Amino acid sequence: MARSSPMDKHTLVKHLRTTFGEVVAVTGDGTNDAPALHEADIGLAMGIAGTEVAKESADVIILDDNFSTIVTVAKWGRSVYINIQKFVQFQLTVNVVALIVNFSSACLTGNAPLTAVQLLWVNMIMDTLGALALATEPPNDDLMKRSPVGRKGNFISNVMWRNILGQSVYQFMIIWILQTRGKTFFHLDGSDADLILNTLIFNSFVFCQVFNEISSREMEKINVLEGILNNHVFVAVLSCTVIFQIVIVEFLGTFASTCPLTLQQWFVSICLGFLTMPIAAALKLIPVGSI
Description:
Elements: H1 6-18, E1 25-28, H2 34-39, E2 42-46, H3 52-57, E3 60-62, H4 69-108, H5 116-135, H6 158-185, H7 193-215, H8 232-251, H9 253-256, H10 263-274, H11 276-283
Parallel strand pairs: 1-2, 2-3
Protein name: P-type Ca(2+) transporter
GO cellular component, one term: plasma membrane
InterPro entries: ATPase_P-typ_cation-transptr_C (IPR006068), ATPase_P-typ_TM_dom_sf (IPR023298), HAD-like_sf (IPR036412), P_typ_ATPase (IPR001757)
């Protein structure tokens, strides 16, 4: 098609987009390529050899005129798309669990285990820190082995729904068991029993999110620790989350409605959170469609 007339190129691109529903990318450098560049979903023009008309009609300008640069563009584009999917998966899990726990507890017992300040901290983990951690994952070569996302592809895939629902069920069950059997298990009695139990629920919930954030690094691969130390932002975010959680529980009792926990209670909270990782690995073994 390189030496075809401008309208032939335009017709080909138009039919690929409309009749076949494909996502079409076109490269060009001449004035006669302008109609096809404008019609395509993604028009790529050459920055050095390309004419001004071609550059104005294109979406992306390849400054070095090196065709292999398109591979880098595609790799980073896929990386951004998948990183957003990871963040949305993590965010929906936190939202679903927090909403169900507080709503069901308020309806059945008359009080919610998570206070407004605690939910605000969870929201910070979910939105600000979670976005920083998961959105800064660098691209890797495996991204180019994935099938491209079609025009009608769902942003929240079946894989994401599987991970979200599996994690949500586990976290809800853990918090509900703690709420109903926690006093008996930890031998809590006295006037501060409810405060200790709610602090334990809050601590366990936060550590579930910490380990779920690690599991969210990969939506389909079981090995989620590969290359984790190379992402310094991710490590820094996790470290800050854990440090601030310790400060909130141990030192900000009046402000956050918490009380200091014993080493046994800390150990149980961290273990309950850590269990989200093997559960996430088991969930990834369940086959689902890629749509």
